[in-house]
Write a structure and sequence with these properties.
Length: 183
């Protein structure tokens, strides 16, 4: 059994008994070895979308938990990293929507925070306005920082198609986010 321990705010946690019971020795070791990279990807995606470190930590943890639950399927290929980035992006978007609904019912924010929030609102609205495939490619390519080949494998299309969707998605985002653009 693996002797892996993860550092948490409350000290070291030996995860081998927890994961080993679920995955078996070999898969447990594989997941423990992949965890730092998966957590880092999930955190970067969530932080870039939300701009809040605590929210990004929560989302990274949730994405990694979901990856662990599906590790038997994810461990077969090179899909774990892109899969975690995609799940993290979806969770961040869901969290953002939830906080937006709560803010419309809650007290108003300060002016400096309102400007930052307004920019994020514009970005999320522009992303939501993109067709699903363009949005997925833009999030994986530029927010999750995956290569064109990794994105192509994840969305099951040719790298040239990824380039096309990325270019069209970025053009639509630029148009929507420019002053005087469609909002």
């Amino acid at each position: 059994m693996s002797t892996a321990a993860w550092s948490t705010a409350h000290g070291e946690v030996n995860v081998a008994p927890l994961l080993g019971a679920r995955l078996g020795t070999s898969l447990c070791d594989d997941f423990v070895a992949a965890y730092p990279d998966l957590r880092g990807r999930a955190y970067r995606v969530a932080f870039r979308l939300l701009g809040d470190r605590h929210e990004a930590e929560d989302i990274a943890q949730e994405a990694c938990i979901r990856a662990c639950m599906r590790w038997r399927r994810l461990a077969d290929g090179d899909y774990a990293g892109p899969w975690v980035a995609h799940v993290s992006a979806n969770l961040a978007r869901d969290r953002w929507r939830h906080t937006q609904r709560a803010r419309t019912r809650g007290p108003q924010t300060t002016n400096a925070a309102a400007v930052c929030i307004a920019e994020r609102v514009d970005l999320h609205r522009a992303l939501d306005a993109l067709p699903a495939r363009q949005r997925e490619v833009v999030l994986l390519r530029y927010i999750a920082d995956l290569s064109e080949q990794e994105v192509a494998r994840r969305v099951k299309c040719a790298p040239g198609t990824v380039k096309t969707h990325a270019a069209r998605g970025l053009a639509a985002l630029r148009s929507a986010l420019e002053p005087g653009g469609e909002r």
